[in-house]
UniProtKB/TrEMBL annotation:
It comes from the Eukaryota. Transmembrane segments: none annotated. Residues 259-509 form the VDE lipocalin domain. It comes from Gossypium hirsutum. It holds the Pfam family VDE. This is Violaxanthin de-epoxidase, chloroplastic. InterPro entries: Calycin, VDE, VDE_dom.
């Protein structure tokens, strides 16, 4: 199979960077740089990869001019989504229209300037008001996203009315629909193995540049979750329209990165390359897009080792050789629960809610389901919350299974320091995870009076890895879903987080033999309330 790049249509008023895209986003294994990046932005790059983009002349500006440029606001990004009428997504059979409407809301959490409208494909008649409204939106669209459209009238209508849109991406739709990025059309031709031969030699470098974007979007879409659907759009915006705030820092600084690594971390680099697990981790990471947290963390969890921790501690945490930065997201704002068992929630009671069942059981909580595809979906997740020996200290230790990329099932464990925030029910968490510090802001959204379930939400960032994230976990004492009588209350709690029930991934709690649990000797548990107190009626 090969990519065929065709000449772009006449230039539009807003210039875009062009690159091709496969219609179905077939996965392509590559480690090439994305279009807008001068050097590949792998989390642990051992060598820079120069791109084929034209040299840009640097012009010195006065301080006043620099400030003026800095203050300029990016224009809105306009996205139009067209979904098949009545089509159903793989997200617990939720209608695609509902999934896309929710995606539009979640895009606003990243940037208020991302405007997405959603239409079902019931616009076959030209005099229909829906068709007129859609035509109006398409006239100023930056991206057209087509999902599950197979009706031939719709296919023809879209083909006729999307010619001036610079970015058109189609998923699970009729093969007659074409994709376009930055004004360049792309289609495939069978030539043997995938990318066995590229047609259009003059576009070869351009094709090479886009492979990583195609791979990233392909793999993200195939994971079938709400975070990755939004991520697909963010990757395309970042590559072809304008920098995305949460993605734009993920780029290597080229030789300055190499110089920093060699100057400060020579022994750690050598030790890592000599260690099989650490070397596999670097090779795995270099196959991931730097913006793909799911891919990156699977590599880290699969091949973690003391050598990898020492490597990343030196390269990233101590010296920040990639010169990255990330902040904890501010959105969505999630309000903590205000009362528990009829009383105003206080800081000590909030800690007791985290401690949960520990003491009666060997763990505080087990995770039933999670929302974040990178961090909440591992099998057999146990939570251990406890008060430490030092006055006021509080700790969280998650224990979870990882099915490594080599097929081995292993246990992993982390240790977070926890400090209470200003508002009861909110906390600051920090952890050193394989040499990189992550800081998180957790909220107790709700816990049932008899401790039969709870919902915890978090915002987080690994600053020197340039990654920010959000997530939520539904917990219970045995890892099973709450009773149906709690459905309304659970839905209300999820709504406070901006999460739909169909976004949650059910954790596999079937084969959880011999988890490495236990807490340090001398630790204490509850202070105000205890899960063992079952004077509250079962719900």
């Amino acid at each position: 199979m090969s990519l065929v790049l065709e000449p772009p249509p006449p230039p539009l008023s807003k210039s875009k960077t062009g690159a091709p895209l496969k219609r179905c986003f077939t996965s392509i294994r590559t480690a090439l740089s994305p279009p807008n990046h001068r050097f590949r932005a792998s989390r642990f790059p051992l060598h820079p990869t120069s791109s084929s983009r034209p040299t840009v002349t640097v012009v010195l500006k006065t301080e006043k001019e620099k400030n003026a440029v800095t203050e300029q606001k990016d224009p809105p990004v306009r996205i139009v989504a067209v979904v098949g009428q009545g089509s159903v997504s793989p997200l617990k059979c939720t209608p695609w229209e509902e999934v896309m409407m929710h995606t539009a809301k979640r895009l606003k959490w990243v940037d208020e300037g991302y405007e997405m409208v959603v239409f079902p494909d019931n616009f076959h008649q030209s005099n229909d008001q829906t068709a007129m409204d859609l035509q109006k939106e398409l006239a100023c669209a930056d991206i057209l996203l087509v999902v599950a459209v197979t009706n031939q009238d719709s296919v023809k209508w879209i083909g006729t009315n999307s010619g001036n849109i610079p970015n058109v991406i189609c998923f699970e739709s009729d093969p007659g629909l074409v994709n376009k990025l930055g004004g360049s059309y792309v289609h495939s031709e069978m030539k043997g193995s995938i990318f066995d031969k590229l047609v259009g030699i003059s576009q070869l470098k351009k094709t090479d540049e886009t492979k990583e974007v195609v791979q990233t979007v392909s793999e993200a879409w195939d994971r079938c979750n709400s975070d990755d659907i939004r991520f697909c759009l963010l990757v395309i915006i970042n590559a072809y329209i304008q920098p995305v705030p949460v993605l734009k820092n993920l780029r290597s600084k080229g030789f300055s990165t190499l110089n920093c690594m060699v100057k400060n971390c020579g022994p750690q680099i050598l030790d890592c390359l000599m260690d099989p697990n650490c070397r596999k981790a670097l090779q795995c990471l270099n196959k991931c897009s730097p913006v793909d947290q799911v891919c990156n963390y699977r590599c880290i969890a699969s091949f973690e080792s003391p050598k990898l921790e020492a490597f990343s501690l030196c390269v990233l945490q101590k010296n920040n050789c990639l010169d990255l930065d990330a902040k904890i997201p501010e959105k969505p704002y999630v309000q903590p629960m205000l009362k528990f068992r009829g009383k105003d929630l206080c800081h000590e009671t909030a800690k007791d809610l985290f401690v949960g069942w520990l003491g009666s059981l060997d763990w505080s909580w087990r995770v039933v389901a999670g929302q974040n595809p990178a961090y909440d979906q591992f099998p057999c997740q146990y939570q251990l919350f406890y008060r430490g020996k030092a006055k006021g200290s509080f700790w969280y230790e998650p224990v979870f299974q990882v099915k490594t990329l080599e097929g081995e099932l292993v246990w992993r464990r982390r240790k977070y320091r926890v400090k209470r925030a200003n508002v009861p029910g909110t906390f600051y968490f920090s952890v050193l995870d394989n040499g990189v510090v992550s800081n998180e802001y957790w909220t107790i959204v709700d816990v049932s009076e008899n401790f039969s379930w709870g919902l915890f939400h978090y915002h987080g960032a690994a600053r020197v890895a340039g990654q920010s994230y959000t997530g939520a976990v539904l917990v219970s004492p045995d890892g099973t879903y709450p009773k149906q009588t709690q459905n309304n209350r659970l839905s209300s709690a999820l709504e406070k987080c901006g999460i739909k029930e169909w976004e949650l991934y059910t954790v596999d709690n079937c084969a959880c033999q011999d988890p490495p649990l236990g807490i340090p000797e001398g630790s204490s548990l509850h202070s105000m309330v205890d899960a063992k107190d079952q004077s509250w009626s079962s719900v």
